[in-house]
Amino acid sequence: MARAGLYIASELRQSLEWHPDEVLVDRAKVGDGTAFVELCRRHSSMAMRMINRIIRNDEDTEDVLQEATLKAYLHLNGFDGRAKFSTWFTRIAVNSALMFLRKKRSRPAQSLEDFTREERGEYLHFSDGLPNPESIAVQSQLATRLNQAIRRLPPVLRDVTEIRHSGDFSVEEVAGMAGLTVAATKSRLLRARKILATRLAPDRRAEGFRT
Fold this sequence. Notes:
Layout: H1 2-17, H2 21-29, H3 33-55, H4 58-74, H5 85-105, H6 117-123, H7 132-151, H8 155-166, H9 171-178, H10 182-206
Helix pairs in contact: 2-3, 3-4, 3-5, 4-5, 7-10, 8-9, 8-10, 9-10
């Protein structure tokens, strides 16, 4: 009896593999759980790679992917088909990863290693003569200020900025994950950079930074 059940499940899976995403989405919306499982099987690998590039931790990546999968299942009826399911699912995964980072970076104890090399290099210019312990403390404080400044950006600028700085993503990749054109993405990143530079400028002068 158990073998028969496994055989039926295998046959069902093989039959689903022939269906395009659009058909599986329609079936999943009316309660076909096996169709949703097949959709996740197809696209979870890509979503996992995106999550891992953002949070850079294998264990947390699995947890975030599970959370993103649950969100996709709960909000499946809101998927209108204007984008590909793979794009929609990946956006949910990226947003879940960004939410995870926001929670992590809001903790009091924070390391400069939580930030990308671009963040450290572009915004955190320190004097060479600072003693090492003091330098570490100042870097940590400024990293926190930078993160707070990013969180205060308007949502349309904050999302692309967080994606850009969370991993080694090209502008094209950021555009794809945000559902924007490359030109619009570049424009938003430039606007965000100008805002951050303005907000962080007083801190640089106060801490003796080079301009």
